[in-house]
């Protein structure tokens, strides 16, 4: 008999924290086993292409180290002592400890903590339903998107832009601040199509020679945190050379005359001194986009993860506005489509029970929260009980030593619901085994594209594994809130209600069609009838303190970071952690191609391809410090120090160090990871972690 005779094909969506949200075709070998995973060719954005790590998804689903049974800590925290515990007993224990915490310190002593390990709206956001019903501490989601989204909306008034598929119709594709080959492979699909079909030029702006830079016709390698200076020089040249679209500026922007006057001193020579680029490189870039109205700016997240990140995003976004690129198909800018979905998640999240008087705790400042910082605790009680889903804070969060120290508190109860024994799970009191996206129903939206996608349950999960939705529902029963709106429904019922409440047809239609394309028409996407401010004008002069934003902190938190130091016009905001005599290097921590945050770091294929954690240093710096390739070096700052091997590499400019990937802490010699060195201080104006903005020293270990 043909061994492949029983293989069937299933359709789903990639659940991971990536803007592409790829439509997937999955081989189903039997009721519990998947095989190959491919991109859906008939999805116009995925276009049959997915990243290598998701193509190997069976390696993750069927990994021999996957958690399969609930485990309770035995002995001291973090020492690796566990005993098996039945599911009912485990959930009873969580409920018991939550009730105890509430009895001692009030409901705010419990902090449900989650993020984007799955982007499914039911399995990710359902924990908020329990949070609001029980009046547990709120979470301010600051860690990933805030700086980028704030900077984009500061200009357009809306988190949406040009259809990303229009890259294929561009004459110049500018990939700014994202290593798309590694992190958003579909960006490259459409950019390369433009090159093949139209002879388009690809410009890549980044801080080191990564895989995307190698695809560029023009590669601009600048110092971290200086993107705003480059943007200003491009606009200076536009006004100087007459390539600024003055008619467009007069009709569609707030203060073009003020911007031009401001930019008078922001010359290519000025920007070269800040960015480390050559004047001729800046002039060539300005000329290229000045001559090509169909210039598409694909603005990523990476360059916004600086303390001046919101300003940098706004400045880069201002460039296609000055040139009038928005007028043209294949021109303009795109970052994220967050504003186009109009999803009503009130039932999934239980927003009817939300009390504005309950405090918000900053997700990025979990270390300060768990070590008792009064400001981080918003003047409230200590956090003494947590459940963690979809995230790995002991590895991914800044100021890692404080995070770990907080998680090790004996008076803190932590339950972690996970697929693998992550760094956070290792420090927990209780570990609950979680299902994968192939084993439940959920709905997804593509931040980097325009499709709503259904992700159906394709296989059965192991008998001893449970979904996020199951855990939330069972805890609600034990904690006396299962009668609240949103509880007692299946995943499919919640998805159907979400769609209908949001103005779409129900789940039956989505399941049949597999996805819905909700890309706005050209006039809306290109802001042809005006930007999304009351006067219809693009804002060159943002109201940083007063503007609405997709993720503005609640009033109880107020503004965050040094808002008063943000510039009135696009500029280089000198808010970054500059190198000094004691810390002569700038450190950036971009993603590795084979990992996605801390996901996939457990799979053999990804780890073999990545090799080992390394610190990349320019040969000139290594020679000056008498450091040889491959030696152990210690790297540190005021937050701590770690050890890893040195890789001498001219990928970055002198004075800039690169460490790729979020390796498990145990992959490092001392058991501490790269986020020991990153800061959790909120960036202006609305918070966010500046992961790529660190000054450090280096010495032989």
UniProtKB/TrEMBL annotation:
InterPro entries: Asp_de-COase-like_dom_sf, MoPterin_dinucl-bd_dom, Mopterin_OxRdtase, Mopterin_OxRdtase_4Fe-4S_dom, Mopterin_OxRdtase_prok_CS, Prok_Mopterin_Oxidored, YoaE_C. The keyword Signal does not apply. This is Anaerobic selenocysteine-containing dehydrogenase. CDD domains: MopB_3, MopB_CT_3. Belongs to the prokaryotic molybdopterin-containing oxidoreductase family. Its cofactor is Mo-bis(molybdopterin guanine dinucleotide). It comes from Aureimonas pseudogalii. One of its GO terms (molecular function) is molybdopterin cofactor binding. Residues 7-65 form the 4Fe-4S Mo/W bis-MGD-type domain. Keywords: Iron, Iron-sulfur, Metal-binding, Molybdenum, Oxidoreductase.
């Amino acid at each position: 008999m043909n061994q492949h005779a029983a293989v069937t094909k299933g359709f789903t969506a990639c659940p991971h924290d990536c803007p592409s949200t790829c439509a997937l075709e999955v081989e189903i070998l039997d009721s519990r086993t998947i095989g190959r995973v491919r991109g859906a060719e008939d999805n116009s954005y995925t276009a049959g292409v997915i990243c290598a790590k998701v193509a190997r998804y069976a390696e993750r689903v069927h990994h021999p180290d996957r958690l399969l049974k609930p485990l309770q800590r035995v002995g001291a925290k973090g020492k690796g002592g566990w005993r098996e515990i039945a599911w009912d007993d485990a959930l009873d224990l969580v409920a018991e400890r939550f009730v105890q915490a509430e009895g001692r310190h009030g409901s705010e002593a419990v902090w449900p903590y989650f993020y984007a390990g799955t982007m499914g709206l039911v399995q990710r956001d359902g924990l908020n339903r329990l949070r609001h019903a029980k009046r547990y501490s709120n979470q301010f989601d600051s860690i990933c998107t805030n700086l980028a989204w704030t900077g984009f909306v500061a200009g357009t008034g809306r988190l949406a832009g040009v259809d990303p598929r229009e890259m294929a119709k561009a004459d110049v594709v500018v990939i700014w601040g994202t290593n798309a080959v590694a992190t958003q492979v579909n960006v490259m699909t459409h950019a390369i199509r433009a090159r093949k079909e139209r002879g388009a030029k690809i410009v890549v702006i980044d801080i080191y020679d990564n895989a995307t830079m190698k695809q560029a016709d023009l590669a601009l390698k600048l110092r971290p945190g200086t993107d705003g200076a480059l943007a200003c020089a491009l606009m200076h040249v536009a006004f100087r050379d007459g390539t600024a679209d003055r008619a467009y500026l007069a009709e569609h922007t707030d203060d073009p005359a003020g911007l031009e006057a401001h930019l008078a001193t922001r010359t290519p020579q000025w920007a070269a001194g800040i960015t480390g680029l050559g004047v001729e490189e800046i002039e060539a870039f300005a000329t290229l986009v000045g001559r090509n109205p169909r210039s598409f700016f694909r603005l990523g997240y990476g360059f916004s993860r600086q303390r001046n990140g919101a300003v940098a995003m706004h400045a880069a976004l201002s460039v296609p506005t000055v040139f009038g690129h928005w007028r043209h198909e294949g021109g303009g800018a795109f970052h994220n489509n967050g504003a186009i979905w109009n999803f009503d998640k009130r039932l999934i999240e239980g927003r009817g029970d939300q009390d504005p008087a309950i405090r918000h705790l900053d997700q990025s400042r979990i270390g300060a929260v768990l070590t008792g910082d009064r400001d981080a605790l918003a003047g409230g009680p200590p956090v003494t009980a947590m459940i963690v889903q979809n995230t790995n804070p002991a590895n991914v969060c800044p100021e890692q030593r404080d995070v770990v120290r907080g998680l090790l508190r004996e008076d803190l109860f932590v339950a972690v619901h996970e697929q693998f024994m992550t760094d956070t799970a290792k420090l927990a009191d209780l570990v609950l085994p979680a299902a994968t996206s192939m084993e439940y129903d959920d709905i997804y939206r593509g931040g980097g594209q325009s499709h709503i996608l259904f992700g159906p349950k394709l296989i059965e999960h192991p008998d001893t594994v449970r979904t996020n939705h199951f855990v939330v529902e069972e805890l609600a029963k034990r904690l006396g809130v299962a009668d609240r709106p949103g509880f007692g429904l299946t995943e499919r019922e919640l998805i159907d209600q979400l769609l209908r409440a949001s103005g779409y047809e129900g789940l039956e239609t989505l399941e049949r069609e597999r996805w819905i394309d909700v890309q706005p028409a050209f006039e809306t996407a290109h802001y042809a009838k005006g930007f999304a401010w009351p006067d219809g004008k693009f804002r060159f002069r943002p109201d940083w303190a007063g503007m609405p934003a997709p993720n503005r902190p609640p009033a109880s938190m107020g503004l965050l970071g040094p808002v008063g130091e943000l510039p009135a016009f696009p500029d280089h905001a000198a808010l970054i952690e500059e190198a000094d005599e004691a810390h002569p290097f700038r450190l950036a921590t971009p993603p590795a191609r084979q990992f996605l945050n801390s996901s996939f770091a457990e799979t053999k294929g990804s780890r073999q391809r990545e090799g080992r954690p390394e610190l990349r240093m320019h040969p000139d710096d290594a020679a000056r410090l008498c450091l040889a390739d491959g030696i152990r070096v210690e790297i540190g700052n005021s937050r701590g120090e770690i050890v890893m091997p040195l890789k001498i590499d001219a990928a970055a400019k002198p004075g800039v160090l690169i460490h790729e990937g979020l390796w498990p802490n145990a992959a490092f010699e001392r058991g501490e990871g790269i986020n020991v060195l990153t800061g959790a201080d909120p960036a202006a104006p609305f918070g966010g972690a500046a992961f790529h903005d660190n000054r450090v020293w280096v010495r032989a270990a």
